Amino acid sequence: MIAxxxxxxxxxxxxxxxxxxxxxxLFGRVKDVIKEDPFSGHLFVFLNxxxxxCKCLYYDGTGLVLICKRLEQGLFARVNPFYSxxxxxxxxxxxxxxxxxxxxxRFIESPREIKKSSFPMVANS
Length: 125
Prior knowledge:
Blueprint: E1 10-12, H1 23-34, E2 43-47, E3 53-59, E4 64-70, E5 87-89, H2 91-99, H3 105-108
Parallel strand pairs: 1-2
Antiparallel strand pairs: 1-5, 2-3, 3-4
């Protein structure tokens, strides 16, 4: 069982992975592609090209854990490969993603930056 906490980050790889890959291959992809430490205790998620299967790599303190899932119907949410930053999911977003829910709106409807404007100042009398 995976014990995700608020400190556990869930990194989603933007590049498709071969679902035949095992511990060593995914370990290398975490280091080379995602540029994170595989022993950090964070969860690393990889999808196949068709988005029907996913593999998760996790270090629980005693060894590497590999979790695999193939959806019976539907697809995992699409990942935008042109998104400039790392795709990091919260625990709740990962749970929805792992069930096959659509989480694409997370990136589309994120709040815009609030710009300072010159609001009229009300003088206290």
